[in-house]
Amino acid sequence: MGAALVFAACTPAPAPAPPTSAADTDPATEVTAFVAQLQPTAAYRNPTAEERRHARGAVDLLLDGRDGLDEATGLLTAIGYDARVGTDPETGREYAIFRTEAGGDRPWGILLVDLSRQVELAIEVPHPNSDLHTEDVGLRLFRAVPGSMLVVAGAHRRAADERADAAHNEDGLFQVVTGRFARRDLNQIQLHGFADKSLPDEDAVVSNGQRRSNAPLRRVADALEDAGFATCRAWTTRCGQLEGTTNTQAEEARRRRSIFIHLEITWAVRRDTERRAALVAALAAAGLTAD
Questions:
Q1: I need a labelling partner for 121 at 20 to 30 A (CA). Which of 111, 150, 164, 288 fits?
Q2: What is the mean pLDDT of residues 235-262?
């Protein structure tokens, strides 16, 4: 304990810093523009120990509620994030967005937080600009479920010989952030995409990285099927090796006994705007914030 206190005293936390106003900015524009810049040839590095500490502290503050926004902003801006607040023109809800530079030295990505209420759901996009349009599904779901936090990885999954793959990198900042979700028992849904030929008879695969189910998984599968989406349930059948059994975030959630939903979406659905909207409506109706 004494050693930890001495170390903390030597590395004081950044001072609270209110985010700047982005009242006229559509968060969808911000996220879409960021994702379009991510390239498989870009450089990538994992965060340092100090950057990890800052991120952990910031996420905990954001999960605690609006009162921690300024302090969280100070921690995140110290590790390369730009921070802004605004009002979502589609929902009328206030949000905070934290974004690093695409292709920069700190490839940490985006955190988009609904400030209208306590965070109750984490929506994760680990493979932006690779699993195409998953960021759009994430944005739509963020808007459909008040009290959500959307996390978009900051690098293409194939960058740095695939070391940047956020869903399989135990040392990445994406894992730092999602690890706080698991520790805080926050329900998570992670969005992926698969090629039509990989599982031609299915529109979606629902799993949690294990060969077992729980109530949220079953609700999601039921809601998707009720909406007309052919859905493979990984706890009852094989789903073309799309069950997320090697997913790093799924494993952390399993260790913490928290809810994690791994959703694979076929290209035929992702490429169609109307079908993406219908899929999100089904997910929102499934009660993602309930255990």
A1: 164
A2: 96
DSSP 3-state of 192: strand
Is residue 290 included in any domain, yes or no?
A: no
The answer to whether residue 63 sits within a structural domain is: yes
pLDDT at 20: 82
Which pairs with CB-CB distance under 8 Å and at least 24 residues apart come from 184-187? 184/60, 184/63, 185/256, 185/258, 185/259, 186/63, 186/119, 186/120, 186/121, 186/122, 186/258, 187/120, 187/121, 187/122, 187/216, 187/258, 187/259, 187/260, 187/261, 187/288, 187/289, 187/290, 187/291
Is residue 121 a part of any domain in this protein? Answer: yes
Question: CA distances (Å), 200 to each of 119, 175, 267, in order?
Answer: 36, 31, 10
Q: Are 225 and 203 in contact (CB under 8 A)?
A: no
Owning domain of residue 175: 2-285
From CA 201, how far away is CA 262, in angstroms rounded?
19
β-strand partners of 206: 233, 263
How far is Cα 264 from Cα 233, in angstroms, rounded to an integer?
11
Give the predicted TM-score (pTM) of the model: 0.94
- pLDDT digits over 53-84, tens only? 999 999 999 999 999 999 999 999 999 999 99
CA distances for 37 relative to 105, 209, 248, angstroms: 14, 30, 25
Whether 66 maps to a domain, the answer reads: yes
First to last CA, the chain: 36
What stretches of 131-272 show up as alpha helix (H) in DSSP? Answer: 134-144, 159-162, 173-183, 215-226, 248-256, 267-270
Q: Parallel, antiparallel, or unpaired for β 110-114 and 94-99? A: antiparallel
Amino acid identity, position 105: D
CATH number at residue 14: 3.40.630.100
Q: Cβ of 251: how many Cβ atoms within 10 Å?
A: 17
Q: How many domains does the chain have?
A: 1
